Amino acid sequence: MQASKIDPDSLAGFDPAELDEPWRAANLDQISRDILDRLQKAERPVVFAGGGVRLSGAHRDFLALIERLGVPVVTGWNAHDALWNDHPLYAGRPGTVGDRGGNMVTQSADLLLVLGIRRNIWLITRAIYRQTALPDTMRFTVTPRPKRPGTSSK
């Protein structure tokens, strides 16, 4: 099939109406309250930050959030600039290319708030995301839509 000739006019076009965007129908206020309630009740909560906290333009909001929460923060391998290493809440980098501290903190969490991570192969370790490895851990994933030229952030 490689180098096969195609007629571009015969290809189906992109229709944004076909996108699966469940967040548009979700009650985000209620979901946010639920997450914050569970964060307050958690004994070992951890925030897992990825490159999306910068790509989304929400880095200042992210810093304000973690300061207010006061819980340990781990960063993905491509999010070294999300939180500086000497920040008092910084706990390391989890994943296959992470460090021991980051993996230990993440694996012992009873609540994992994942922000701006696409969960690539370098970050997804069996102990972090498999329900069988951490049966008592709650995981909430929040992936902001990146602000890119030519796209809307609405």
TrEMBL record:
InterPro entries: DHS-like_NAD/FAD-binding_dom, Thiamin_PyroP_enz_cen_dom, TPP_enz
Domain Thiamine pyrophosphate enzyme central: 34-126
UniProt cross-references to Pfam families, sorted A to Z: TPP_enzyme_M
Protein family (similarity comment): Belongs to the TPP enzyme family.
Protein name: Thiamine pyrophosphate enzyme central domain-containing protein
